[in-house]
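Design job #97: recover the sequence.
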C-alpha cells in the first residue's frame, strides 16, 4: 500500500476542500429567498353563450421561494389560467390554481393572494329594440317639424339578459334642426351607454326630419270686412 510522501500536505488539501465545500453550500443556502411577484390572470374556455358581468382582477400575487439569483419570469410574464369550461350562469367562486405556473425547477409557489375569486356570468341574449331619434334645436321662425322618420326603425342588440330587460328603446345620437328652413337628413349612431351591449345591425341608421312652413290662419268667409269711412 502506497503512502503519500507528504501526509501533512494531503491533510491541508482535504481541510481546504472541505472549507470550500461548506462555504459554497452555505452561500447557496443564504441565497434562498422568499419574494412576491405578480402573475397575469387569464380566463379561458368561457362558453360562448355566457358573458362576464363582474369585475375580475388582472393579476394575482404569488409568493415564491427559491434562489435569489434566479429570475422567476425568465421564460416570459408569469400567467395563471382560470378554466371556465364548466361554468354556468350565475355567481360562483373559483379557486386560483397555481399548478400550471411555469417556473424554474428551483423556485416554488408557497402562497397566492387571493386564493379564490367570485365571478358572475350571465346568459347572452338578442333583442330587437325600436330606435328613438333625438332631435335638437328649433327651426327658423315660420317653420315647424312636421314628422320624423328613422330607418331602420329597429335594431338587434346583443348583451347580458339583465341589461336587456331594462331597455324599452335605443336613443340615437342627436340631429340638429336649429334654424332649418327645409328638411334635414343625417346618419346617426345608436347610443349604447352600457359597454356590455352591442348592436348587431350593420346598416347605417338614417334620421329624416321633415320641416315645412307654419300653416297660415285661414280667413273666415263669413266675416264682414271692416267698413271704410
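Job complete. Output follows.
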Amino acid at each position: 500500500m502506497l503512502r503519500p510522501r507528504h501526509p501533512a500536505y494531503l491533510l491541508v488539501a482535504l481541510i481546504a476542500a472541505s472549507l470550500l465545500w461548506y462555504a459554497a453550500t452555505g452561500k447557496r443556502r443564504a441565497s434562498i429567498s422568499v419574494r412576491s411577484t405578480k402573475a397575469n390572470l387569464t380566463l379561458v374556455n368561457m362558453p360562448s353563450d355566457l358573458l362576464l358581468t363582474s369585475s375580475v382582477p388582472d393579476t394575482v400575487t404569488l409568493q415564491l421561494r427559491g434562489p435569489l439569483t434566479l429570475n422567476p419570469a425568465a421564460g416570459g410574464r408569469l400567467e395563471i389560467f382560470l378554466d371556465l369550461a364548466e361554468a354556468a350562469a350565475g355567481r360562483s367562486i373559483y379557486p386560483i390554481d397555481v399548478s400550471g405556473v411555469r417556473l424554474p425547477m428551483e423556485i416554488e409557489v408557497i402562497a397566492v393572494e387571493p386564493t379564490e375569486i367570485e365571478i358572475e356570468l350571465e346568459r347572452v341574449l338578442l333583442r330587437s329594440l325600436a330606435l328613438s331619434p333625438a332631435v335638437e334645436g328649433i327651426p327658423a321662425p315660420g317653420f315647424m317639424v312636421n314628422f320624423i322618420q328613422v330607418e331602420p326603425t329597429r335594431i338587434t342588440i346583443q348583451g347580458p339578459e339583465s341589461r336587456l330587460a331594462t331597455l324599452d328603446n335605443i336613443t340615437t345620437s342627436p340631429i340638429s334642426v336649429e334654424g332649418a328652413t327645409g328638411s334635414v337628413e343625417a346618419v346617426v349612431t345608436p347610443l349604447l351607454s352600457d359597454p356590455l351591449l352591442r348592436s348587431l345591425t350593420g346598416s347605417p341608421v338614417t334620421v329624416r326630419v321633415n320641416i315645412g312652413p307654419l300653416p297660415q290662419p285661414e280667413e273666415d268667409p263669413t266675416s264682414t270686412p271692416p267698413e271704410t269711412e
